[in-house]
Amino acid sequence: MSGKQGGAVWIASLVRRWPDLVDELSPTGRGALRERRGGGPVGGTTAPVRLHVSDAVRDITDGVVELEEAVRERLGLRPVPPAPVPVRLRRIAGLLDRIAADPLLAPHVEDETRRMAARCARALGDPEQLVRLPGRCPACDYVSLRALPERAEVRCVNPACRRVLEAEPNPQPTTDNRR
Ligand SMILES: [Zn+2]
């Protein structure tokens, strides 16, 4: 798997799961609404903020900001205005062709995005969540690729194929064509 594909996988996972993570953090989320409906005290009452969620939100936010800055600096691009995490992630995704051409930058971007995708998945407590990926399985050509962020693994869910594609930290040309 190339660095470009690997980075794209984890960015897609993060973009998809990030709103769920922020929802978990929000005091106006579903938990708080349920509490009010139940006739509990109003005003200062909020659902307790779960520390592992707020830590993950902060860690990923900082990580995405630092990653975008590092990418733009390395590629000699001008700084861009601050933006929400998904916007920054999409901007990084838009540079993946150029990132892939840089042998130092590509593995860094892949490592960081995979780390953050795994952090997000763990904080959501949903490690077996399969994230639907764009693109086709290189083995069977079905649009059947899913990522498991917790395991930093990509696999094909076509029952006739079930190929597992690992996202290697240091992308190598694929020489092993076993299924
Ligand atoms: Zn397949």
Lay out the secondary structure:
Elements: H1 3-25, H2 30-37, H3 51-74, H4 85-93, H5 96-100, H6 105-123, E1 131-132, E2 145-148, E3 153-156, E4 164-166
Helix pairs in contact: 1-3, 1-4, 1-6, 3-4, 3-6
Residues 137, 139-140, 142, 144, 156, 158, 161, 163 line the site of zinc ion.
Residue-averaged pLDDT, rounded? 79
Q: Whole-number radius of gyration?
A: 19 Å
Ligands in the model, by name, code or SMILES, are:
zinc ion
The computed structural class is alpha+beta
Largest sheet: 4 strands, antiparallel
Low-confidence stretches: 30-45, 168-179
Widest sheet, order of strands = 1-2-3-4
Region (Disordered): 27-47
Written account of the structure:
By secondary structure, this protein is an alpha+beta fold. The protein has helices at 3-25, 30-37, 51-74, 85-93, 96-100, 105-123, and strands spanning 131-132, 145-148, 153-156, 164-166. A four-stranded antiparallel sheet has the order 1-2-3-4, with helices on one face. The chain is flat, with a radius of gyration of 19 Å. The structure holds zinc ion. Residues 137, 139-140, 142, 144, 156, 158, 161, 163 line the site of zinc ion (ZN).
Brief write-up:
The chain has 179 residues and is an alpha+beta fold. The protein is built from 6 helices and 4 strands.
Keywords, please?
single chain; 179 residues; alpha+beta; four-stranded antiparallel beta sheet; 49% helix; disordered C terminus; binds zinc ion
